[in-house]
Amino acid sequence: MSACGYENGLISIDEAIQYILSTPKTLATESILVKNSLSRYLSEAVYSPVNLPSFDQSAVDGYALCSQQTDSKEQVFQLIGEVRAGEESHLALSEGQAIRIFTGGKIPDGTSTVARQEIVKIMDDQNIRIVENLNIGVDIRREGEEVKYGQCLANVGQYMNIGSLAALSMAGVQRVSVYKQAKVAVVVTGDEVAQSQNSLSNAQVFDANGPLLKNWLKQYGIDAHVIHVEDQASAVTALFEGLKSEYDVIITTGGVSVGDYDFVRPCSFDVGFQQVFWKVKQKPGKPLYFAKYEKQQKNCYLLGLPGNPAAVYVCMQVYGKLLLDALQNKREQKSGFKAKITHDLKADHRERFLRMVATFNQSTLEVSALAKQQSHMLSNLMLTDCLVRIPAAKQINAGELVDGLFI
Amino acid sequence: MSACGYENGLISIDEAIQYILSTPKTLATESILVKNSLSRYLSEAVYSPVNLPSFDQSAVDGYALCSQQTDSKEQVFQLIGEVRAGEESHLALSEGQAIRIFTGGKIPDGTSTVARQEIVKIMDDQNIRIVENLNIGVDIRREGEEVKYGQCLANVGQYMNIGSLAALSMAGVQRVSVYKQAKVAVVVTGDEVAQSQNSLSNAQVFDANGPLLKNWLKQYGIDAHVIHVEDQASAVTALFEGLKSEYDVIITTGGVSVGDYDFVRPCSFDVGFQQVFWKVKQKPGKPLYFAKYEKQQKNCYLLGLPGNPAAVYVCMQVYGKLLLDALQNKREQKSGFKAKITHDLKADHRERFLRMVATFNQSTLEVSALAKQQSHMLSNLMLTDCLVRIPAAKQINAGELVDGLFI
Questions:
Q1: Tens of pLDDT along A255-305?
Q2: pLDDT tens digits, B155-205
Q3: Are residues A231 and A362 in the same domain?
Q4: Mutant choice from B48, B103, B132, B308 vs A, greatest count of A C-beta within 10 A
Q5: Nearest-CA distance from B374 to chain A in Å?
Q6: Residues A72 and A19 in one domain
Q7: Are residues B315 and B387 in the same domain?
Q8: B35, B135, B170, best to mutate vs chain A, most A CBs in 10 Å
Q9: Does A281 fall in a domain?
Q10: Which one of A141, A165, A309 has the shortest CB-CB distance to B376?
């Protein structure tokens, strides 16, 4: 390969990341049902509308007892009724009485402790005997012992994963305020990219970028619109003109390098976009382009990815994720990991994101580069589970620590 | 809490996992479009229908040259035309000639090397000069250098993530054979579980399990049907009778313990299910129940989760995932990780899955337990990013290695 990348004016990966984090204006917020909030970021903190548990309840299937005796072994209780889980009962216990109760059942007034059924002998219809000593207050989940009414359950910026969604549901939170997710259009450029898998000419390639971005965004939680456009300035300009007012983000692939048919940048200028940056000292993805269109109420951001699928894959994991997060006011660089590399790595003049496999050796994370890292090659993605960032112009030795992120 | 868990007949976590992996009969296969194959497992290997690249192509924007001279610096070439990416051209080069070419463009016959445009001076409309020495065959991606026609791209069992989907798309693979995903019904039992967030009686709790499982399955790739059923044997039996012939998997929550209103097990027997196991020496999730209904062409598996949301969460991550994978012929225990625990941990008589936070200290993964681990408590799920398995009856000291899995 040629030694491109020595050009002036290229920014570093860290600078590019800072632009991506700081440029976008946060999207509006909306109120949605908690059960539909998967993959969203909270725009308002959530306070508990209840105590959890919201009443004293049994932790087991057994018997609620009323007894002031500390030595309850062999004590006999008179059975006066039953409380099922979910049942509102007005039964109350007096000394020496018991009520059959089930896990989650509301503790009757007068209860001193609960005996799980494994330590209870049923003598007859009306009497039970306890076969072990039992302290006061055993197997009772107390009202508010986990969460108090009004307590903060989740802060602004909380990511709604399965766990947070379940926890808010449990506290009876019905709706949450979240940042809207970007409306995203994906524009695949390049006459060499076949529009369909059936109509490939001799000089064309199959489209990996369309399916890649469509599914990446689906996993992120966004149903993106994918459009193919021919390499004609008028067509690209007309497309951008229509998209900029309808979408929050346009992600393009191809057409951002220095070729005569690289129309993405000039056509974006034609419709009013301003360049934030173009070209990053990185491999893959050097031609990466980022632009903004900000007009009163309507903003649109254009992330111009290179055409090579590996560059698309890496740039989307690194920059695309940050951009979509930043629009939801999550302006943090993915934390990632440190790992030991298992082999030497020759220096390269550009900073690189290498596709690697991560494994645990005891508690130490180790990473190993896969073969075929060139930007037009994708087949190693079957095995890739992390991207590792290798500084420019630095020989890496086996055992050194490197920075990476899981994908 | 009481010291339940000493019962006889409980199986270990490892035994339960083995039953979950070995019991299910693999689902049928189907052919689907690659672009729709996210989250699926391949049932047939995929061989490349093409070479990749499928023709010799330029790796840069520049000029295809024909020159037998090794010292090309200052050599002048006659420009005879242009080849755009995607264009099928019949232009061919003779000694001393050049053709303008763009990244991905098909290399013309007669080309000896490619000069990237940064090292080319345009003299006039018809002549260019090279300003650096250039070897033979530079910046040409050779046909088949990444993948050869007929080469295996993906094996049986390959998980279709974004990367594998993109790699197959790039090779022009249109359809893949995959295992069907299970049709899943979620049955939330328990009269104490409010059917809606608006109609909570004094003795009821909000439903966390329905939203939890619905969204967990959504993330797995399955659109599950969620049903609430009252604690009445006739209702549960009638429901199971209908579901067993329509669904591959029934996941229930609650009703699998030893209470008088725990109808899941007896009602599953009523409609022909056979118990595979019941009760596991674990915390949370001791009452876990697994049963099968296998009749000629129609199998159905019932995973009876406890009612406590934390047990549901943990059992789904551990056992539910394995069951759904096994139905797609993926019969492996999730690999997980080893990590150093940052603090002491008291022994417990049962083996436990604890909700923890994982962080990297240099390349060493460290885990720390969160507060409020009881099985009816969920609020720590806002922070949880891994489950750590702690052996029974063993005091753990800070710095010891423990096994875990990311969630």
A1: 998 888 899 999 999 999 999 999 999 999 999 999 999 998 889 999 999
A2: 999 999 999 999 999 999 999 999 999 999 999 999 999 877 666 778 899
A3: no
A4: B103
A5: 9
A6: no
A7: no
A8: B170
A9: yes
A10: A141
pLDDT digits 0-9 by tens, B384-406: 999 999 999 999 999 999 999 99
Total domains, chain A: 4
Residues of A in contact with B146 (CB under 8 A): 372, 374, 376-377, 379
Q: Hey, are the CB atoms on A407 and B163 less than 8 Å from each other? A: yes
Q: Which residue in A162, A172, A261 is closest to B212 by CB distance?
A: A162
| CATH classification at residue A72 | 2.170.190.11
The answer to whether the beta carbons of residues B254 and B33 sit under 8 Å apart is no
- B401 and A363 within 8 Å at the Cβ level: the answer is yes
Indicate whether A197 and A302 sit together in one domain: yes
Domain of residue B341 covers 337-406
Q: Could B258 and A117 be called an inter-chain contact, meaning their C-beta atoms sit closer than 8 Å?
A: yes
Domain-embedded: residue B87: yes
Sign for the CA dihedral angle at A88, A93, A98, A104 comes to positive
Give me the residue from A198, A207, A215 closest to B162, CB to CB.
Answer: A215
State whether B146 and A376 contact (CB < 8 Å). Answer: yes
Whether residue B373 sits in one domain with residue B319: no
Cβ proximity of A360 and B365 under 8 Å: yes
Task: Read off the amino acid at residue A192.
Answer: E
Residues B77 and B135 reside in one and the same domain: yes
Subunit contact A166:B212, Cβ cutoff 8 A: yes
Chain A residue with minimum CA distance to B218: A38
